[in-house]
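User: what does the whole thing look like in 3D?
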Amino acid sequence: MALATKPPALRRAKAGKKGDVPRKIGASAVMWLLAAVYGIPGLWFVLSSFKPAGDLFSYPLTLLPKNWTVSGYTQAWTHFDFARYFLNTLIVASVTTALTIVASAAAGYAMAKYNNWWLKAFAACILATVMLPGETILAPMFVVVRDLGLYNSLSGIVVPSVITATGTFMFRQFFVTVPNDLLEAARIDGSSELRTFLRIMVPLARPIILTLAIFSFQWRWNDYLWPLIILNDPKQFTLQIGVASIVGAENVNWSVLLGASVLSMLPLIAIYLVFQKYVMSADINAGLKD
Amino acid sequence: MAISPTVRTGRWRWLSAGLAAVLTLSACGSGSDDKGGDSTAKNITFWFSTSAQDQGYQDLAKEFQAKEGISVEIVNVPYDGYQDKLKAAAQANALPDTASAPGLDTLWINKLQDLSSIANNATNNINKDVTIAQEGKVLAIPSDVTAAGLYLNKSLFDKAKVTIPTDPAKAWTWDEFLAAADKVRTATKAKYDLVYDRSAARIRPWIYTHGGKGFQLGDDGKFAAPDPATVQALTDFAKLNNDVTMPKSVWAAGADPNALFKSGQVVAYYSGVWQVADFAESITNFEWVSAPTPAQPVHATDINLGGLVVAFNNDKKADAAKKWVDFLFQRDNYTKLASANGYLPVEKGLTLNYPFKKKEALDAFALYVKEMELADPISASGAANNTKLLLAGKTVDDGLVKDEMGKLVNGQQDAQKTVDNIVKGLNQQIG
Amino acid sequence: MVDSAQAAPRSDIAGGEPAPTKSRRRPRSRHNRYTATPLLLISVNLVLFLLFFLWPAAIGLGYSFTSYTGVGDAPWVGLDNYERLMNDSAFYAALLRTLIFTASVVPLTFVASLGTAYLLVSQYAKGKTVARVIFFLPWLISPIIAGVIWRWLFGENFGLVNFIIIELGGKPLPWQSNANLSLIIVIIAATWANTAANMLLFVAALKNVPTSYYEAAELDGANAWQKFRRITLPAIAPTSFIVLLLSTLGNMKEYGLVIAVNEGGPGTVNNLIVQYIFQTGFKRTQIGYASAASFVLLVILVAIAVLQLLASRRKES
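Assistant: Here's the predicted 3D structure for the full assembly of 1038 residues, as structure tokens:
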């Protein structure tokens, strides 16, 4: 671990070498093959949302719509108060994500950089939270939430969702790879533990923060059963509750459901694109001068 | 170990911002329910579930407000999880004032008001067989009834030049129907004769129309062993699932019969009245009709209850709640409701003008009304059994029937074992 | 790198911390030094864990020793539920099926997500932005829609794949009626849906590997595969471990997607363990029995987690 990393300009120049063209073709081909395999089912889904209801199940099967229509979308928009539910979901997802990141980063860092025995026990406890199926603790958790007075409020959705084993361990695994020398150096410099954490470690973990933000957003966006049970006031309903109202007891209005599903996914894709750009372009190595 | 002051404020700032957000959210939520100050309630809530655009209840709510000055907040709760939501609301003491519930729950059944005055009102002429009563107290009145029935792909029948009977009084037998379907299938090169909804409720009319009694509760409150006709009917059913007449994948593996029928490659589909509105909108590639359910020899269907309208005893809101339910079932209002929402009525002798534009839909409804009149009384026994069990504080899960029938169709066991397992399993559930 | 010569003891450091010399190798008699900070750091998660996991889990555990039906009182039955569970062949069948399912999905997802992450991070693949969205979309799709999509693709009667097979002159396969084919479909669907999440974790981990390592290796003449094996894999080992662990635990608990694709069919052959818990327990209001089954599942998952931990420790040494 001797030299400092080369300046960015030098690194980029290397990519323009000769033997790269076959590499580019090879890598791109594999990636596009995979993208095709992953994309075809999704493509059918998106294209079907533009088909009129009568063509969705027609035989022989068609990938492309014969008659393009947005009636599924317009019906979905008017089927329930889309804009309001969207806003509610946005609030819940944002607040939860912010709190989740704070809690997970702190706990993950503690588990990675400190040696107390009870931290290891706590790590095991956090891991245990993914070992019970959600349905099992749904009813008892409802009792708890009710007793805490969080029923029929958006906080009843936010607060229980802040703790996440995935998020905590994401940060733990990341902070494990951060050399302890950095921490030691900060201590020598007189920085307190918390200050080191906040000023040095957290900024390093920005890609993890953004990745967890994407996860957390998706989890909260797609929460269905819990918000349904907790919320009574339709003005506070979330998007998934609205989408589920398209599914009837005995039959489903597929074209509306497809339209609604695509619409509800768009914000997630937008967030993903924005955050991923930062993750991809993050030059993490800059902080770790080895 | 001291925390540097700047860090502390920075961190606390984050935490307090988060806390503030959380507290604001909780204030937003629970605040709206504490309107305990009203001496006479000016607004009540009504929960129900529909996947269609609701017009019926909305219109009635407007008229109700004009008449009584009480506003009704109508909340459309998605069907999946609705029952759980009511359970949770009961546990949190936050039940709605009125609701159209998918089923009664022992958890809150004692919080229901008595609707006898509405049910026994002669002008309403509500069918007493479908109201749910316990010891003289009427707990719930269904908003509608549903019936199972047969749909045919008319385009295929026309192409094969096979006629379809239209009068349920002169219904065909299953053998005649299957022969006709065979003819249509071979003539038009369709894939299957029939697809059949996969549910415990839908298999009942198959059993009934073949003369069987199905799964009935005995006097001891337990399910009795079914008669041989039932076993024979199920054996026949399994035989038909041979991937020529009927696709195995529906009852054995949960394939969607609705999608299969909509593909236009299946001659017939046995489902129920709820498909009419959906078909009217979403089948555009071929013509469909409702046809009389075959009888062999019994003419039967499965009559089930739609949403159960209840009024909860929520202190100050109880009177207003009762008034709303009363308003709903007044003859003129109910006529408007049933027409607008496409309900089969629970009140007798109404003239309904359904808003369907397609003639098939209007004909279908007329057929269902006629079929229900002609149906053997056993048709309502399935729903009646469920009600009886519910009032005794027990629930049964129909998944058992689906699972055992799946094994039957899959060839894992014969019909006798199937019915024995079903009876055993059901009795185990009711304890 | 900070010169360690500067690490002279200073007595005026805030908080009275002694000189941070080679503290890691000393016996941990100074454990109380770093108690307040880690405690504060985990405080939020700790409180939430106690309130929203431990408390409900304790209630659930309590139920497992009763014959609670969701209403009324909960009569104590001791270990009855557990005994019944141990004697239920359907439980073991579901458990076996779930193990097969998990053992198939986890490696597939691991390879797929690492592969796609590697491609997305590599400088050689073109068109990454669009590919990024394409890989991500499956994870966003709700189980009910995913079920429709895969049924449409592999529907036994009118599915696309069978349609193509027929057009090519072959015999259509019973994707839904054959238990193993049906399981394969679910495995493919689960891999398809879960790749993106793990892919994102790997992307972050891959970006974290210092480029200086690769440059040093290139100077030594290593090719791409060698670089991958010798540098990348070890460097992302912590993330690989957590991906494998969480993926295993998550797939053992799979429920929504299986129901949407084949409802646990044909028959009940492909009922996975959570569906079993749901059907025999919650649907039939046998809350006590369902809770007992859930805790048995917890024990199994703990065992799996411990095994994976031991395996990874062994690999490290």
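In plain terms: Chain C touches chain B at residues 14-17, 33, 36-37, 70-72, 151, 155-158, 174, 176-177, 182, 262-268, 279, 283-285 (CB under 8 Å). The first helix of chain C runs from residue 36 to 64.
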